[in-house]
Amino acid sequence: MDASNDTLSVESRAELALWAAPGLGPKTLRELRAHCGGALGALLELPTRDWVPEAPVPPALRQLLLRASSLASVAARIQERCAEAGVGIAFQGEPAFPDRLCGLEDAPPLLFYRGAPGAPRRRIAMVGSRHPEQGFLPYARTLARQVAEEGGCIVSGAAVGVDQACHWGALDAGGDTWAFMGSALDQLDSAQAGFIPHLLGGGGRVFSELPPGVRASKSSFPRRNRLISGASDAVLVLRAGKKSGSLRTAEAAVLQGRPVLALPGDVRNPTAEGCNDWIESGQARLCRGADDVWKALGLKPSQVVRPEEPVQLDATSAEAKAAYRLLERVPRGFDDVLLRSELDPAALASALSELEMQGLIVQHPGKLYERV
After folding, report:
1. How many helices (H) does the chain have, and how many strands (E)?
2. CA angle, 89 then 95 then 97, to 5°
3. Global pTM?
4. Residue 83 class from Cβ within 10 Å (0-12 exposed, 13-18 middle, 19+ buried)?
5. 26 and 105 in contact (C-beta within 8 Å)?
6. Radius of gyration of the CA atoms of the chain, in A
7. Is the dihedral of CA 14, 10, 206, 304 positive or negative?
8. What are the beta bridge partners of residue 363?
9. What angle do CA 357, 294, 277 make, to 5 degrees?
10. Which DSSP letter does residue 110 get?
11. Which one of 162, 165, 177, 304 has the minimum C-beta count within 10 Å?
C-alpha cells in the first residue's frame, strides 16, 4: 500500500513508529495499547517526554524512545525510506498482510513488503539446509515445482541452498512464492539481493517485519522463522542437521498448530539427521513426495487443480456459479459463505453440493468449503 502520510491513519502511524523501536515486540505493544485505553493514536503528536516516563516498557526501551521528539517524526522518516526503497507497508487485516498470521500471539502488527498480491491459495513452507549433500538441490527444486503446479504457494526464506531451490521450483511452474527475510528489505545480503529480483519478476512477494535500514542479526533469523511457518498451512523440512535453523521453523509450526512434514535421508548424511529424528519421534510426518503434502492438508492430489487449468462452469447452475465466486483456496465455513451470498440456506446448500459433485470444491469436516 501507499505509505504516505495522507494514506495512513493516525493509529497506523503511531503503531508503525513504535514497531520500529528495537526491542519492542508484540507483547509490549499490546501492553502499551492497553495503557493508552486501547488506542495508540493519541500518542502520535505528543512529545515523547510527556508520556514515555510512565509507559509500561523496559528501561532500555524507554531511553530509546525518549531520543525521538515524537512518534510522528519517527513514522515520517520510516515512510520516507519505504518510498525511496519501493517498499509497501501492510497492517494486520489488510489484503497485503498474510491472513494466516492474523491471530497468532507473536505475529507482528505490520509487515514491510515488495511484490504484487497473489490469489488466496494453500501455502506450503519448504525449508532446508544451506549446504545439503551434492545433487540434492535439483530434487528440491523439482519437488517444489510439483507442489506449485498443483496450486500451492511455496513459502521460504530465500537463503542460498534449499530455500532458493524451492523458490526456483515455484517460479519454474509459473506459481506463487513468498520469501520472509531476516533483514530489512533494503539491507539484503549479496546472495539474496541477486535472487530477489528473479522472485519479484516471477510474480512472487518478499516480506520483512524489520523497517528499512535494519541489518540481519543472530536473533532476527530465528524470529523470522515463525513468520515462515505462521504464514503457511503446513511446513516441509527437506534437509536439516541436528541443530539446523530449519528445525526452529518446524518448532514454531508445532506451536502454531501447523502440520510438519520431513523428507527422510541417508542415515550417514549429517544434513538429514534432524529430519530423520523428527520422523522417528513422530513430530513430523514422513514425506515421500508432493502427494504427501496434500494429504497432510486433508486433500487428495486429484482434488487439487493446477493453476494453468481453466475452471469450467458452463455446466453448472446459476446458483452454483454464484456460490463458486464466493469461495477461495482457503476453507470457508457455511455461515461465512451464507452471509456473503444472496441465496437462502437451502439454495446455497444445494449449490455447494452441486459444485462438490462436479469436483470443483471440496468439503472439509465442520462444513468448511474450499475451491480445489
Report:
1. 15, 12
2. 50
3. 0.81
4. middle
5. yes
6. 22
7. positive
8. 369
9. 155
10. E
11. 304
In 3-state terms the chain splits into helix, strand, coil percentages (rounded to 5) of 45, 15, 40
| Grid cell digits, residue 320 | 452454483
What's the rounded Cα separation, in Å, for the pair 3 and 91? 11
The per-residue pLDDT string of the chain (372 residues; one tens digit each, 9 = 90 and over) reads: 445 445 899 999 999 999 999 989 999 999 999 999 999 999 999 999 999 999 999 999 999 999 999 999 999 999 999 999 999 999 999 999 999 999 899 999 999 999 987 777 899 999 999 999 999 999 999 999 999 999 899 999 999 999 999 999 999 999 999 999 999 999 999 999 999 999 999 999 999 999 999 999 988 988 999 999 999 999 999 999 999 999 999 999 999 999 999 999 999 999 999 999 999 999 999 999 999 999 999 886 555 545 445 566 777 898 888 889 888 767 788 888 888 888 889 999 999 998 888 888 888 877 888 887
How far is C-alpha 54 from the geometric centre of its chain's CA atoms? Answer: 35
Which neighbouring-strand residues pair with 113? Answer: 88, 207
